[in-house]
Structure formats: structure tokens, C-alpha cells
Amino acid sequence: xxxxxPSPNQxxxxxxxDEDNVGQRIDNFLLSKLKGVPKSMIYRIVRKGEVRVNKKRxxxxxxxxxxxxxxxxxxxxxxxxxxxAPSANLERVSRLEDRILFEDKHILVLNKPAGIAVHGGSxxxxxxxxxxxxxxxxxxxxxxxxxxxxxxxxxxxVAKKRSALKHLHDQxxxxxxxxxxxxxVRGEWQKHDKVVKAPLLKLTLKSGERIxxxxxxxxxxxxxxxxxxxxxxxxxxxxxxxxxxxxxxxxHCQYAGHPIACDEKYSEQKFDDSMRALGLNRLFLHAxxxxxxxxxxxxxxxxxxxLDPVLLELLDKLTRV
Length: 321
Prior knowledge:
321 residues, alpha+beta, 10-stranded mixed β-sheet, 3-stranded antiparallel β-sheet, 15 strands, Pseudouridine synthase, RNA-binding, isomerase, EC 5.4.99.-
């Protein structure tokens, strides 16, 4: 039986919209303000007229304007739904501070550790974005620009203003942002395999596990590859996705016959066992570099994230060829 717990959501609030939230849909705005409240409940209180903008009813797709006054009603949520923010003192949270690669008033760039999701949900209490919000309680706006898989490390871009988020999303949409990953794959990657174009389809197995497969009914997907270093039995490649599909690099490597080391979903047991014997305890996929235009200064930026020690130590143990 669900019990109810007091939360910051249980009082009427009047919020005046400033430039950080201009253009945002009211449903998305409410999701950010009513932490832990299910989306279905958000739509219900909007539909019933409990949420008002400038004392008037609005639809969920209403876009906020500067100076709008939003009435947010009290909402009671069960313990199952309500999540408190992680403590900034948690070791895993506080360590993120040391992994910030760049920060100013508009953006924050992090070298995300492997093993932590970018956001909470699906059984995960909190992710990188919730952790950053607990480290920056005074920061009114913090949103992910893009995502990385839980087991992938490397450059992760976060917007600190809504205008910056919109600018960076426009760059992603127009393919003006370049992401370069490093992956250690099985076997000898062939020089002529410079581009993999294979449509990707999301599937849910009977077990409930979600995977991605190359399938003609899937979405068009393209990844460009470059050989960085050959090793005995493995190759370090640079993978640059042109499209941004779920698990794209991982599945394209598998499709090319060169699965990534220690990929629990798409790799090959014998290869993984040999890598684990050398000390690898995680997926060898790292977002090494991100090139984009700064949303305020319009200058070209290149941010690089160094490989984690466990990855560097593995490469040192391999025999170059």
C-alpha cells in the first residue's frame, strides 16, 4: 500500500517566467518544477484548469513568454513516485566536481564517469543531471544537451540557460556538432571500413531487455570510423556518429564484425574474457572529443576528455602491431 509523504510540491506557488524559460512548453516546465510527479498527473492538473498562466486556463502545448505568471497547484505524490535529490556530500556526487572540463555562465562540460546514468529513472535513483543540480543548488536551470549510455564515459554537455539549450539543440539538429569517440574493438579493423551505414531498430525482448538491431525497418544511421592504433587481437578506433541513434556505435561495431570490448549487450564472450583477464572492468567506449559553437560567444569550441586510467592501463598491456 502506498503512503504519502510531504514534499516541496504541496503548496500553491506563483512563478514569474524569466528569460531562462521563455519558449518552453508548460508541460515540460511543470515536470521540472514538480519533481517526481508522473507526467500523467501533470497533464491531468493542466486539463482540469488547476494550472493557470496569467489567471487563465492553458493547454499542455502552451509556450511560456517572459513575464508570464504561472500558478502551480499543490500536488501530493506517493513515496513510490517522489524522489529527493541526491546529497551533494555523497562521494559519487562530489567526485563529479573534479570531472568538470569547462564551465561558464552558459554551459558546463563534464567528463562523465562510466557506470552512472545521465538521468534518474527506470530503477535508477539519480543520474548525472540530478547530481549536478545538487552540487549547484543556486543554479536555476541545468539541462542535458545530449545523452551518453550509462556504461560510456566522456564528454557530456549541459546547458545552464534555456537559450543555450535551444542554440545547442539547433546545432545537433543541423549536424553542426561533431562527436568523436574512442572504442577498443575485437580483431583487425579493415582500412576500407571507413563508414558504416546500417538502419537501426529498437526492440524489446521477452525478458524485457531493450536492445538495438540492424534492421531494414529501422532508422537510417551512419557512423564514420578511423583506425587509431592496431594491437594483437584488437584495434583502437575513432568512431564519429553522423546520426544519433541509441547504441549506434556499439551496434555498428558489432555489425562490422568488431564488437566493442566488454559490451554486455553486443560483444563476444571469448574476447571479453581476454580483456577482463587484463583488468578491464567496463565497456571500452569513451566520448573523447566534442566540437561545437559556443551558444553565446559563437566561437568554435573543442573539448577533450582524457581516457580513464583503467582504459589507459589496458592499452599499455596490449601488444602494438
